Amino acid sequence: MKGFRGFILRGNVVDLAVGIVIGAAFTAVVNGFVRAFLTPLVGLASGATGDLSRKTFTAGGTDFPYGAFINASISFLLVATALYFLVVLPVNKLHQRIAPSHDVQAPKRECPECLSPVPTEARRCASCTSPLPALPAQATAPTSEGTVPARQDR
Question: pTM for this structure?
């Protein structure tokens, strides 16, 4: 029981549970809004009278409730739009502000022992931890901001 209690009380499990409950409540509000306001507006625009969500057509003796599908589609679009603009977009902007990604690839060379790629400036291989041979000293190493003297401590 101690392990189970530790699992349940982890922060991410509790956060996920809260998110699911809030998401279900938000979906109920959006579905109510669609049924109460948007579906009648779609019905007015299309010339349908009454509750559009109860509209069906019959083919081969089977009823197809296309109005319920329209309701569900509008609800889905509203939920997806709200989640994107109210959750995803702000979180992405927050991540960019806090920790902007610098996708700079360091030049690589192969480790002579295990042949795994390692950064050129590395002194030991990250995979096999063997010492790497020193590179011949270069006068300058090009960077994105011009040239700077290469490290001479090897």
Answer: 0.48
